[in-house]
Specification:
Two copies of one chain form a homodimer. By secondary structure, chain A is of the alpha/beta class. Helices cover 38% and strands 18% of the residues of chain A. In chain A, strands 9-8-11-10-12-13-14 form a seven-stranded mixed beta sheet, sandwiched between helices. In chain A, helix 3 packs parallel to helix 4, helix 6 runs parallel beside helix 7 and helix 7 packs parallel to helix 9. Chain A is elongated and about 85 Å long. The first copy, chain A, starts with 12 loop residues before the first helix and ends in a 14-residue tail after the last helix. In chain A, 55% of the residues are buried. The interface between A and B is large, with 102 and 102 residues.
Chain lengths: 490, 490
């Protein structure tokens, strides 16, 4: 078992907690990305010192621009290289001379293209195999560190929006998340708590294993999201995932390019070679990662795991109850439960009697834990809130039920529900309550944020409800192969 | 081959084009659903005559309330029964006496519950097996007919919002679509054109076959969406689907309750019995329907088919090009292409040279039709629009490529693109251009409507992009079994 250096001794520490940052390629032109990096550092209240560097000099947002790093008298912890690949050697040499310990290379055109391979050799030589300076990248949008709400370190040139501090760390072999996708999911859920987003780029030096080592020990992180196009060392990856899970952390993995067609994309992207799909699946199974279908599900899994923190999932075969205002939606949900081999038990006599009392006399409830509660809504004469509380409680308190799928009509005006009370119910019973709502689009946009703020897991289709429940459980409990794949048998 | 009566002779004609409507159970209380039906008829500018009926009399929104149907002197084409199931017999008898040809029963509690079965027998008797009056329902929110933008017939008590006239017909063995889900998808895409939404309920008399007969002949309908929990007659269903497809119509099917678990839900919902999953899959294959995963995909398929109307899909093995601003997103797309056996061909030398000229000198494009265009964006110095037009044209004009997946960064201010020109490109080449965009949430909400108005197929994840392309093609071209199911091999 490899021993991991302590956090303060770890090479990643200079990247995540630098006291000073030098930005090579800083620009005085507000339209240029070299300006936006300085703007991002400033706007996000980076607490260390900022040193823009450009041979032309000048001033950016009140900071004097240094012509070379040697002009700076104070020590530099982290260098951000926003310069063409051809200028990298010279700048790295200057950084080494200055005693900089960490550098982020944002440019592409290194090991992933033929012309860049000699450049990589030369960097290895001048850094004495990265012993003189550690490198993150190249082809890398760098690092986001959230210290507290709206404050931290943002090395990317992409406008990042405001950020909420939390315990999710994302490690990505792509600039996509620190780039365009980050504002999408944080603006959708402004209260989604992020700790780090780390683009590892083409892994010339530091890789996913180095940062995983750090995250295993880092007490501020409990949920880890990984986007990877290659595994640097499969055995060590599985080992680190086990350590992370033993430390109570969950890991979501999106693996790009594990098919032959996909590897044609990643080869030109990050120079990754094809790893057979079977190998990737074996790694997923042995590491206990939750495998995401795509970036959208990656985001949903991160959000859902953050809502369910501290919940303990059962080891027995998975069961659920379906509570639906639409018989049709309940049927589609049930078909997906069948697909993922999630059992729907029968009601115990006491609960069944309680449900019967909610229904009109001509309509008996379903003997299985599939409640079409529309007839009960009509009986409830407008008290939709109490009805929901009642049926959700009946399902959550049932020891035979591991989780609850609720599909509901959302109407903020006519059908008032105190969703905070429903969130409290879920936390009281410590069982997942997965919700799909429908109503007017405007109402739904509002509800999206409300539910996230209440940490109520919200989804957007029946398939999502059941598939994500299955994936989260499969990761934590005993796994079941799906019994009948819907898409395959079409 | 069964011969279908002409439209004006068809029993459904009285339901879809009634010149007068009587509403039993109309209420003078604006909080009650019996009031809202009248309100919906009025708000949506129903062009025929409206007759509220309630033994208490009074006035609703300016209409006098009749105590019985016999008080009405004019003929009645359609009766809406918003009354308890116990009052149904008496009202139907009065309708028959008055010569009403069509009735919608909104209440539940008939054949799907034990207590309701004698009621069904009695209705059969007094209607002489539905020869004296045709019945839609019970347990049925009725009919939406859009005559022109914002005007038509709305028999449901659910507030429906404004509606755009179009050529989509939805037939649903559930009130869900005419109820809560309709405002969701029409408010999301106000220009989504609907012709009919018909809830068939528990099919006491009229069923999906009767309405399909009508839709096969109806020239105003080109896209048919079906939500079914049971097939009334499988042979005739397949026959009608063939006739519809021969007439150039597409059919999207969502089949609720085809698993054992699912059938436990539908049995109590619409009294449907289990049909084996294998049978359902065989019906799908033989009918040429596109099978939706759930209601969300049902909506996306309807929207996409309406965007692609008139496109002719190839019969040869399916191919596509991936154009992506994120290497990662491209890799995930490519993995899904592999999953669905969609081939990514190599570029021809001329196109490849054209792509090479867009890239920086140190970065050669991928030899396969997977374009990571981020390096070209940097070279394009801000002219994002021309770059997109150029690469999309290269892909669409390539005879080896059947469709194009585009993932793009959307920034309405800094990255201006004339998406109308891109929509025109797609129509010029008559090949699907499937788009996934990311950016700030606010921007994306705006883009959602813009893209729909331009009839550009927009999706929300890589899986959706590829899966829906596959489903639409599978329906129209030669089908391929997926080669490797991602979920199964986890």
């Amino acid at each position: 078992m490899v021993s991991i250096p302590s956090l303060s001794q770890h090479p990643f520490d200079s990247f995540l907690s630098p006291k000073s940052v030098a930005v090579f390629g800083a620009s005085t032109n507000p339209q240029k990305s070299g300006y936006k990096i300085i703007e991002n550092l400033l706007n996000h209240h980076y607490s260390g010192r900022i040193y823009p560097i450009n041979p032309r000099g000048g001033e950016i947002l009140g900071f004097p621009v240094f012509r070379t790093i040697t002009e700076i008298l104070e020590p530099i912890d982290l260098a951000i290289l926003f310069i063409p690949n051809s200028a990298t050697i010279e700048v790295l040499q200057a950084c080494i001379q200055k005693g900089v310990k960490a550098a982020i290379i944002e440019a592409a055109g290194f090991g992933e293209v033929e012309m860049g391979k000699p450049l990589v050799q030369e960097i290895r030589r001048i850094t004495a195999n990265f012993s003189k300076i550690r490198i993150l990248g190249p082809n890398c949008t760098g690092i986001t560190v959230v210290e507290k709400d709206g404050a931290g370190l943002f090395t990317s040139f992409i406008p990042m929006g405001s950020t909420k501090a939390g315990n999710i760390a994302i490690v990505s072999q792509s600039g996509f998340i620190n780039g365009a996708y980050y504002p999408d999911f944080t603006e959708r859920n402004p209260s989604m708590g992020i700790r780090y987003v780390i683009a590892i780029g083409n892994k010339m030096d530091l890789n996913e294993l180095n940062i995983l080592e750090y995250l295993v020990l880092d007490p501020t992180v409990t949920i880890i999201g990984l986007y990877l196009e290659s595994f640097t060392d499969i055995r060590y990856f599985i080992d680190l995932c086990h350590r992370a899970r033993t430390a109570g952390k969950s890991i979501i993995l999106l693996r790009g390019g594990f098919s032959e067609v996909g590897s044609r994309a990643t080869h030109s992207h990050t120079g990754a070679l094809l790893e057979r799909a079977e190998l990737v699946h074996a790694v997923v199974q042995q590491s206990g990662c939750i495998l995401a279908d795509d970036f959208w599900e990656f985001f949903l899994l991160l959000r859902t795991m953050s809502h369910l923190q501290g919940f303990v999932f059962p080891q027995s075969p998975l069961t659920a109850a379906i509570l639906t205002i639409s018989g049709a939606s309940g049927a589609v949900c049930a078909d997906w439960c069948h697909h993922y081999n999630i059992q729907i038990p029968s009601w115990d006599p006491t609960s069944y009697a309680a449900l019967k009392a909610l229904n009109p006399p001509w309509m008996d409830p379903n003997p299985f834990c599939i409640v079409d509660y529309w007839p009960a809504v009509e009986e409830a004469k407008g008290d939709y809130h109490s009805l929901l509380m009642r049926i959700i409680t009946l399902a959550l308190q049932n020891p035979a039920i591991h989780g609850v799928f609720l599909t509901a009509y959302y109407n903020s005006k006519a059908w008032q529900v105190d969703w905070a009370q429903i969130a409290a119910l879920m936390r009281q019973y410590q069982k997942p309550l997965f919700i799909w709502i429908f109503g007017t689009y405007t109402d739904l946009l509002f509800a999206d944020r409300l539910f996230h703020d209440l940490r109520l897991p919200l989804f957007y289709s029946e398939r999502e409800l059941v598939q994500i429940f299955h994936k989260i459980y499969q990761n934590t409990g005993k796994s079941h192969p799906p019994v009948n794949n819907r898409n395959d048998s079409e």
